[in-house]
Structures are given as C-alpha cells and as structure tokens.
Amino acid sequence: MEADVAALPARRPAKWPRAGGQNARRALRVPVCFLAGLCCTYPVNESQTQPAPFEVSAPAGAPSEPRDRAEPIRRLPLRWAPQLVAALVALCSLLLPLAWSGLWSPYELDTAEFSRRIAVALHGAERLVLPGANNAVPTLSELGRGQLPFSSVAVGFQIFGLRDWAGRLPLALWGLLGIAATFVLVSRLFDRFAAAYASVALASMPLYFLQSRTLLGDIVPLSTVAVASCALGLALFQPGLARPRARFGWCCLALAALAAGFVSRGLLLGVACPALGVGLGWLTWRCSGRRSRDRFAEVLGCVALGLGALALGGGLWALFSGNPDAYLELLGAAQRAPSKLPTHDQVLHQLGFGLFPWSAFAPFALAIALGPEDQAGPESALGVCLVGVFAVALAVHGISSPHVGALPFVGTFALAALIGIAFRRIELGVHATRLAALGSAALLIVFTWDLRTYPEESLLPFALPGATFPESFAASAKEWMKWGALPCLALLAVALADLPRGAQPRWSEALEQYSSWLRELGARWNGQLLRVLGGLTLLLGAVPVLRFLDAHGVSISLLDRLGIWSRPLGYAFLIVPFFLAAPLAASLLRELSAGFSRAVERLPLARARLGVLSLAGFGLALSLGYYPALAAQLSPRDVFESFRQRSHAGEQLAVLGQASKVAPYYAGAPVETPSSARIAFDWLLAAQEQRRWLLLGAKDLAQLNSLYRQRSQPAQNLPILDAASSEVLLASNVLAPNEHNDNPIDAWLSHEAPQPERPLDVDLSGQLRCIGWGVTLPDGQRVTRVSTGQAYDFRIYWQVLQPISSNWKTFIHIDGKGRRFNGDHDTLEGKYPFKYWLPGDFVTDVYRFQLEPHYSGATYQVYFGLFIGDRRLAVRSGKHTEDRIIAGSLVVD
C-alpha cells in the first residue's frame, strides 16, 4: 500500500507552498460553517480518522496531482468516460424534456409574449406578428428584469417559429454552458472525475434543470455567474498558465460573462456574486501566508475584488434608493412589497427543496471543503474560491429578498462543484464518511417526508410567487417521492457508510451460539422458565380472540373495561416470541452485514461513485418523470390536444381566462376569447343545434356550473369532457350518449335526494335542511364504527331551501371521555361557495378525517353545523344544542 502511495506522480509546481491551503480554509471556516449550519447540522470533520483499508490516501504533506490523479482501486475503461457521462446526463436532463410540456400560464406565457414582441420589433421577425395583439417592443419596466433572457428566447422564436420548445432551446443552451464552465473549472483545478461528479450534480438539481428548460429566464444569470467565476478562478489559480494569450482569453471571457450577468440580473446577482466571491477567495488565500511572485494574479485579484465591491455598493444603493423604476437596470429585478417578509431563511428553504436530493449531502460537502487539508495547491484554492462565491451569493440573496422576492440562487454551480469535490475526496480516502452517511440519510428522509406531506414545496425551484400546486397531482407526487427516495436511500447508505470490511460470515457459528443460549434458558428454574413464558403467551394471545368475537357480535364486557388498552394488549402476545428470537435475529443481522460488506467490496464500481449514482438517479427521475408530469397539470396544452381529438370539423372553441393567451401556440385556429364567465356561458349555449367547446380555469367552474344548473331541466352539472388537470378543464354544451361527465362537482351536487346512512331532519334558519349524515371508507363503502389510525370520509347531506348569502364553514365535533375531535373545514373544500347553491339542490359535504390512537375503545357523541367566526347558523327545528346539530353516536374501536 505504501508503495502505491509513493508511486503517485508529484506534478505540483514548486511555487505552491506545501501548507498554503490550511490557513486560508481556517480563515473562512467560522463564517461559512455558520451558513452551512443554517442548512443543516454542521458535521464534525472526520478527515483525521484512519482511512479505509482498501482506499489509498496521500500522507500528510505529500504533493497532490491536479489532473491525472491515480485511481485508488479502479479506473473507468475510457479516458473520456467522465466527460461523456457528464455530457450525457446534462443533455438528457436539459434538452430531452424541452417539448414534453406546454407553456405555464401566466408565468412562461408572459416571457414568451415579451420575447415575441422583441423578435418582431427588434429582430424583424414579421411572421411572428399576431393580428389584434400588441406587437410593440416592451419596455424595461414591463420586463421587470434585464433584457438578455428575453432576447435569447426571441432568437429561438425567430429561427424555429412560435413554438414552446423553440423558446426554451436557447435557455437550455445557456444551462449547458454553465455546466461546461463548472466542468472546466473543477477539472483544471482538481481532476476530471470530480468535475464529472459536479456536472452530474448540477444537471440533476431541480433548481438548475427547471430554470434551463422553462421560459422563466433565470438560467441566464445562473450560467453567467458560473462562467465568470470559472474564468476568474482559472486566471487566478491555475498553475502553469504562463502564456499571456491564455490569461488574456480568460479575462475577456470573464468580462463578457459579467456583462451578460449585468444585463440579465443587474449588479448584485450578475456582477457582485462572481467577482466579489472570487475576489474574497483570492484575498483569503493571499492573507494565509502565501508569497507568490505572480504579479498578474496579484493585479487580477485586486481588480476582481474592487469590481465586486463596486458592484455590491452600486446594487445596494439602487436597492435602497427608493426609486425602483429609475434603477431597474442596475438592480436587475422589479422591487415589490412581498406579502410575507422573506429573509435569509427563505433562501435556505429554496435551496433545501430546490437542490433536492443533492441538498441532503450539500451541508457535508461544505464541511469537507472547509476541513483541515494536508495538501496544498490549486485544489485548496478552488475550495476557497467556491465557498467565497457561495457565501457572497447567500448574503446577497438574503439582503435583496425582502425587496425583490426570492429569486433563483445564482451560486448553485458553486455548491454543485463542492459536492463533486467532496465525493472525489471520499473516493480517494481523504475523509471518512460514516457521519456524512448518517446525516445525509437523515436529511434525505426529512426532505422526502416534507415533500410527501406538502407537495407544493416542489414548486420552490421555480421561485414564482403565488404558484399553486394542482390537487390532481398530489397523489402521484407522493408516489414519486416514496419510490424514488427508497432506492436512493439504500444506495446512498451503501456508498457512504463505513461498513465492516474483511469479515467472513459464519452462519453455522451463529446458529450454534443461539442453540446454546436456548439450552441454557431451558435449564433455568429446573425447566419451568420456558413453561411460564409459554403460558404467558397463551394468556396474552386470548385478547385478539376476544376482540374477534366482539367484532362479530359477541359482547365481551371485559373489553369495555380494558378501554384504550385493548388495542396494545392485542399485540402483547408477540412479546415472548420476540424475546426468544431476538438473539438469533441479531446474530443473523451481524453476519448478513458482513456478507453484504464483502459483496459491496467486489462491486465493479467505486462506492463513492455509487453515491453519486444514487443521487443522480433520483434527480434524473425528478427531471424526466416527476416534473414533466407536474408541468402537464399546469399547462393547458394537453386540453387543447383533447379538444382536437374530440371535436369535429366546424365546431368552435372559446378560451376563458389566462389560457386564452396560450391559444396562438396550441389552438391552430382562431378561437373566441370571452372576457367574463357570464359571456362565455352565453356563447356556449347560444347554438343549440351545433356543438361548442369551452376551455376554462378551475376558478370559473363554480359560476359556470351554477348558471348551467339554472338553465337545464332537470338541474344538471356542466358537462366536462376533460378534467385530467385540476387547473384547466374542457367543457361542452352537449354531452353525447357515449360520453361521461367528468365534472368534479358531481361528487357534491345532485338533483336527486340521497339516501343517508343516518337520516336526520333539522332546519337551519329556513335556508338549509340537514337530511342526514354518515361515515364511509375513502372508496365509499359505508361503515357503522371506525378504528383509529384509519382514514374515513364524514358525509353531511344538505337540501337547499332558499338562496344562501353568507359563505359558511362547517364544524364537526366528536366529543366524549373528556376529549374532542375538531373537524372545522371549508364547506365543499371552498370550491363551490354558498352563493351558487340553488333551491332544490342536494349537496353532500365530504370531510376526510382520521382519529388518533387515544380515541380508541369508546363511544362518542357527534355534533356538527355551520359557522362564520364565532357565530353559528341558527338551528330552528330538530335535535340541537347551542346551534349544534345532535347527530348521534360514533363507536371507535
């Protein structure tokens, strides 16, 4: 092993001091560790622990190799394999799904419309002129940011026509440019494998690939910051760059990238983040004791630091000057008063879910980058430079968020590069990984749990205020997260965990030890101990038998006395078998771990690369599966396609609401654009002899449905032919005999009287009559009693007697045993207000509830009614108390 280490080539130029990186990292450790701790618990550095036996690590003080570092165990078979893998992942993630989803109105649509006008007015694209639309060049205040993203989209429209993928293609190319810059920077200052890991991480981060392939436009500043940081970093820190032409080229590229950043997101994000970040990295490196005779680097470092400071000062002056319109070009974002004051924690919130699943490992990558470093050279300088860019970007976003809102994090590339470097150092055995494995697994579980519980958090990578998550995709989102996280978690644990190595499984010895333990246990108390344990098992096993008899109509008074303990006692008979089997299970688990460890060592893939594969696989699943499916729910493109498939020649289409602006992209023919729901309804029913179609948003469905129920006899709900998306629907004036009405209001409204499971007759202020209630399973099956931990639907059946003006909410009280379950909720989920309820309608309000375990084993009294604030709708007749309907009892097992 020592011979292998000694054989590593020493390619570090003599001008790099041997310990130059340690002091530089120590100077930045405290502030950046604090920032990393805001994301997650800052891990204890494990770089001084003994490396794994099968891994090679350089001894303290040994020179490092920046490019062709030898593989400790295995090599990829091709020299260009890292570049090819990184390019393949980037192309698949950024380019492949460009045409899979339509325009998201109004967010992408606004950018597309402004870009079309720029192409018409400035680029001379006459074929993009839309009759009756505004074709003039937009003003900077209309854009709300720099012009470069819109001009990029305009070029795509000009070349390929007015198509969604044509506008997205230039932005995707910007994203590929940022990934290429990240690869070049890390490969020249570290090695190709770390660069490949960084590129794969960046290409599979939702915050990056979503901005790359949507018309939101913020991929331009994300990419320009990466290019500017790359050019400045290489001009400052790359050893052996003695040719003036090369350095001059990097400086010109840096200036061009800074200029592009300025015309896309202004001074703060476009200029200050890369220039000041790299400049602070150089200053920290310079103040660490390094004495360099490279005068060009000294001058360039001072210039970068000064330019970044000037940009920061100018941006802050524009931010706090109080004249946002005059300084919009300097600021690069329109100032607004956010409804909820965002602070730096909102930026971290965006990073946590915007970089998922890589955000689970990101805090530990920061810790590894700032840990004690035995090697000197450009690797250490690269770490300081990346941390500087990340810290400045985090500070600038935190300062500007209260004034311009949460914008996509421009330092994403730096975090991706640090992640790639961290995985490479783990692969080389420089750092132990047990703490990183445990912490990453814990964070991955937390993030996945949050995304399953609150699916709307997956919209954070878009950085859009007011974006709503489609309810029709909530169930699919939970499944995506569950089945994506499980294999990722398993592979990540295998890749990073320090498993015991070299142990040979001894299954026979484990069984022999367990047999000896059982014989010794049987000899206790003259052989009576096993009999006592067996009798106890039989006694406890009688409880589930009694519960079974009670569930099938045999009354057992003992169970009533047991109360809430009846359910735990139902599983108590498993205690003794578990006690007897636990030693064997522990022995078998130990031997299985040893065998599994030996199998992992024989894998043809290094374990650190397996960790990259696990996170990249989950990221690509989100990129190629989850987010395209989500985008299909947000865009009306699929609804336009449904209209083309269902309609016949000569049938007309009208588009109501924001979707009317998308019609030129997908309709393929002129459409009607009514200005209100009432006008749209009159147009829809104007021609009884011919079928007409209406594309509408979910917010207009309630009014249109009420108007249709007033017009139809008997009252029926508006025919909806396509409700695959909960946001955009396709309606028609006629429902053919072979067609089914997919109107979601059908689950609540009917013109026929329902048959309640538990009938009632209660009058509420002469406006409503409660005709009953009941409890069902989610599939609609009726139940007479409920169990804790199980989801049920509480159904309340109303008959409308008179028009209702106020918008009441529903309360449900399940009282008894000193407890209360409170089921306050918006009636009909707030989607069909009371003002649309018509006399004669039968309405079923459905509320899903689940009782906690401490409610078990008792009978409760049920009350419900309607309320607004502290006022309840008065009950005139029927069983009631304090304007609460006395519904009856509910048995909870």
> What does the average pLDDT come to?
81
The number of helical elements comes to 29
Can you count the beta strands? Answer: 19
Q: How much of the residues is beta strand, in percent?
A: 5-15%
Helix content: 40-55%
- Main beta sheet strand tally, sense and closure: 8 strands, mixed
**Rg calc:** 33 Å
Please state the structural category: alpha+beta
Unreliable segments of 5+ consecutive residues: 1-77, 554-566
Shape: flat
Distance between the termini: 65 Å
Salient structural properties:
single chain, 893 residues, alpha+beta, eight-stranded mixed sheet, seven-stranded antiparallel sheet, 29 helices, 11% strand, flat, disordered N terminus
Task: Give structural notes.
The structure is a single chain. It is built from 29 helices and 19 strands. Residues 1-77 and 554-566 have low confidence and may be disordered. It has 893 residues and is α+β, with helices and mostly antiparallel strands. The longest helix has 43 residues, at 244-286. A hairpin with a 2-residue loop joins strand 18 and strand 19.
What is the topology?
Elements: H1 2-6, H2 20-39, H3 81-94, H4 107-121, H5 140-143, H6 148-160, H7 164-189, H8 192-203, H9 206-212, H10 219-237, H11 244-286, H12 295-319, H13 328-331, H14 344-354, H15 362-370, H16 378-404, H17 412-427, H18 434-453, H19 474-496, H20 507-522, H21 528-551, H22 557-562, H23 566-569, H24 575-601, H25 607-634, H26 637-646, E1 652-655, H27 663-666, H28 677-684, E2 692-697, H29 701-711, E3 720-722, E4 728-732, E5 749-750, E6 758-764, E7 768-776, E8 782-783, E9 785-786, E10 791-800, E11 809-816, E12 819-822, E13 825-826, E14 842-850, E15 858-868, E16 871-872, E17 875-877, E18 880-881, E19 884-892
Helix pairs in contact: 2-15, 2-16, 3-7, 3-8, 4-6, 6-7, 7-8, 7-9, 7-10, 7-17, 8-17, 10-11, 10-12, 11-12, 11-16, 14-16, 15-17, 16-17, 17-25, 18-19, 19-25, 20-24
